[in-house]
Design brief:
By secondary structure, this protein is of the alpha+beta class. The chain has one domain: CBS-domain. It is about 45% helix and about 20% strand. The chain has a three-stranded mixed β-sheet with strand order 1-2-3. It is elongated, with a radius of gyration of 20 Å. The two termini are about 35 Å apart. About 25% of the residues are buried. The mean pLDDT is about 85.
Amino acid sequence: MKVSEILKVKGNILYTVTPDTSMLEAVNTMSDKDIGSLVVMKSGDLVGMLTFREVMKSIHANGGAVGNQTVRDHMDNDPITVTLDTDINDVRRVMLERHARYVPICDGKTLIGVMSFYDVAKAVFEAQGFENKMLKAYIRDWPSDGEE
């Protein structure tokens, strides 16, 4: 299964901010949209990711407050990215290795969407469910010893 197949089902709604967006505005957007990440874009280029993890680190560093800093001060400057052709098993491996809950999907330098660990888990679960159903149907139709 490829990233492109998951994106067809998931959709490609994107929420972005710039590095100069205030952390308060970013947190408000994440809360209002009920999302766990924002893609950080500058001049049309992906320059980082702001996820729940970075927000929590920011709040911790500011003694429990969001503070007046910008997204640039807390974003992940080097997010992993995947392409539409990336195999889902490679996505799972790299997300686990990097402890990444969100990965941007790019086609060259063009941002296409964002995939969450939830999206990956859901796709794998559904694929396994379909495979199990097909195997059970195959076993039910298994010929008896006298048939050929």
